[in-house]
Design goal:
Shape: elongated
Helix content: 40-55%
Mean pLDDT: 92
Number of helices: 9
Radius of gyration: 25 Å
Number of strands: 8
Strand content: 15-25%
Largest sheet: 4 strands, mixed
Distance between the termini: 15 Å
Bound molecules: adenosine-5'-diphosphate
């Protein structure tokens, strides 16, 4: 992505607010001559930020802006946005898992085995479903109700937020454990973080705010 100069940013702002607008009118707003503006207008038109129509003037190209924002999403890495995973031992009781969910204010817990490797995912609805049908939640271990390996959808720190978002949407899930594979082939994963739909929304807002000219 080309870094724009201060004056080019100013031109974009004017065209966004007042377009279609002629080169002469932009020059007047900036107290410059039309000739002095010509190189900047040429750059912005060539880069796709602006569209020019003869005898009408310059338009702000919204599609270009959206495409640039999407490109930035592709560049952002899971590693830079992941949150701490909230973890329970898979032998933890369902009762204690529910307490943990409230204490940590999260929607999903991850279960680990005695070696600390990822063993399962426990969502809000997994816990609700279990609570409806079972009286003795203190005796029931999470390992009985969790979604287990090898059915867990994971993401690695070097994947992009776009890839993480796609995985959540295609699999109809709210969060992904961020993992490092310890032993390729036998589903041994070290849990290093979590990505949720909130993470994606927050990143989206951040990108939008950074880009607002
Ligand atoms: P909820 O059940 O509260 O709506 P989810 O939509 O995230 O939350 O979970 C739906 C189901 O998918 C649950 O049974 C849960 O255990 C499972 N699940 C959640 N996240 C994952 C994941 N990353 N990989 C595999 N299964 C998951």
């Amino acid at each position: 992505m080309i870094k724009l100069t201060k004056r080019q940013d100013e031109i974009l702002k004017i065209v966004k607010e007042s377009g279609p607008i002629t080169g002469q009118q932009i020059a007047e707003k900036l107290s410059l001559t039309r000739a002095a503006l010509r190189p900047d207008l040429a750059i912005l038109t060539m880069a796709g930020n602006l569209d020019a129509r003869p005898r009408v003037g310059y338009f702000f190209n919204h599609n270009h802006e959206v495409k640039q924002q999407a490109e930035q999403f592709i560049l952002r890495k899971v590693a830079d946005y992941k949150a701490f995973p909230i973890v329970v031992e898979k032998s933890t009781s369902v009762y204690d898992a529910i307490v943990q969910l409230f204490l940590e204010d999260v929607g999903t817990l991850y279960a680990v085995d005695s070696d600390g490797y990822l063993a399962g995912v426990i969502s809000r609805k997994d816990l609700l479903r279990t609570a409806i049908g079972n009286k003795d939640l203190q005796e029931l271990p999470c390992s009985v109700i969790m979604t287990r390996m090898p059915n867990i959808i994971t993401v690695t720190p070097d994947e992009t937020l776009l890839e993480a978002a796609k995985k959540m949407i295609t699999n109809h899930i709210d969060s992904l454990p961020v993992v490092k594979e310890i032993n390729p082939g036998n589903h041994t994963y070290l849990l290093v973080g979590r990505i949720t739909k909130t993470t994606i929304t927050r990143a989206y807002l951040e990108i939008m705010e950074q880009n607002s000219v």
